[in-house]
Amino acid sequence: MRPRSRQLPGADKAAAVVLGGYVNGYSIIRELRACGVPCIWLIDVRRSIASRSNQLDGFSLIQDDAVSLQEELVRLARQLGQLVLFPTSDRHLELLHEVREVLADTCFLPFRSETLLESLDKGIQYAHCQRLGVPFPRTAEIETCEDLARLDGLTFPVLLKPAKRDDLTSDVFRNLLLETKDTLDAQRRRITAHVECGVKFLASELVPGDDTVIYAYTAYRSPTGRILNEWIGKKLNQYPDKFGVFSSASNEAPDVVLELGRKLVEGMDLVGIVEPEFKYDARDGTFKVMEVNLRSMMWHRMGSLSGVSLQFTQWCDAMGDAPRAQMQERQRRIHFVYMKHEIINLLSRRGYWPYFARNVFGGEERHFAVFNWRDPMPAIADLITYPRALLSTWLKRLGMR
Q1: Residue 309 above 80 pLDDT?
Q2: 3-state SS string over 310-364?
Q3: Using one digit for the tens of pLDDT, what is the confidence trace for 360-400?
Q4: Is 64 exposed, middle or buried (0-12, 13-18, 19+ CB in 10 A)?
Q5: How far apart are the first and last CA of the chain?
């Protein structure tokens, strides 16, 4: 019988520990507090926006390495009791996997230890898609400099991404658009330098369409293999461009996204909060997998706003309590907006005003990612970063960074 993440039934003392205090971490804190979780702690490597929240019971600042994380979790377990962990980056998952045996008796680890690392690899994710019959773009894996020749078999434009989120721990780009073979030739030296440093890339044919046709299925699957709650939605726009991260989102998505997402999560035997992301391809009418994320993304609060509290579902499952099955609200259009990204998009993306107006003023219900009257300091801390983020965006567009 394969080992499973340990559940913590009947724990007299327990705490939720959020790793990373950016927008996704702050959203986890808000959801868990609203659902009545008695103790919430934040661990981060910097003074993030969530570290200013009055909804926390404590905050720890640590170094970005496995030893520091292990020592702090061991200390918190002595102080707070059993810990339920909520990672917000692939880096957190990798560090937790490294120290999993030490933490097994005191922490609920929201992943399948045996397959976690391979499941983070986009090449392996696409291999699962092929096996399961889930659409995905034609791809080529680049592990050696000689593998660059495989790009000749793809149709340009091609999007090049690290197979794993190496860009969190090195200076490798998050993605690189190769519009033509001439673009590839111009970038070859840069790509080769990263490959020689051990970075593995996945090159995918670009699915046409802008950042308004990206959808997601998000679920919590227990260590026993049951999907306990799930929801679907779409990104309304991304920042700083169509290959960026969440700017605004809604609870609008077709049922096929639910069907494909569920098929992939179960077929890959994933555990914890999982988010396959799809892009609609108008050429053949299919939703193609872009990537599978094994933790809470920046816009996951869309779930709780539309009636599905996945973070609290994980907490209940870890405590040995049967989580209540929840039905997502999909009749009333709900918008979830990160104003920082929307404002910078408005000031830096030509012709963005119609999207801004739709995202910020549209929908039948609107919520903001950081702004909270009852907890104002995270929004104030975030507001201070606006000018610097805007300057950085402009410099990147000018090719100066």
Answers
A1: yes
A2: HHHHHHHHHCCCCCCCCCCCCCCCEEEECHHHHHHHHHHCCCCHHHHHHHHHCCC
A3: 999 999 999 999 999 999 999 999 999 888 888 777 766 64
A4: middle
A5: 51
pLDDT at 172: 82
- Closest to 354 (Cα-Cα) out of 280, 244, 248, 283: 248
Interatomic CA distance for residues 263 and 41, integer angstroms: 34
Give domain status of residue 5, yes or no: no
Residues 245 and 102 in one domain: no
Q: How many domains does the chain have?
A: 3
What one-character DSSP code corresponds to residue 153? G
Q: Is residue 37 part of a domain?
A: yes
Instruction: Answer for the pair 289, 268: CB distance below 8 angstroms, yes or no.
Output: no
Nearest partner of 341 among 35, 23, 47, 90, judged by Cα: 23
Neighbour count for residue 357 (Cβ, 10 Å):
11
Alpha-carbon span 292 to 265, nearest angstrom:
9
Residue 203 CA to residue 152 CA, distance in Å, equals 11
Q: What pTM was estimated for this model as a whole?
A: 0.89
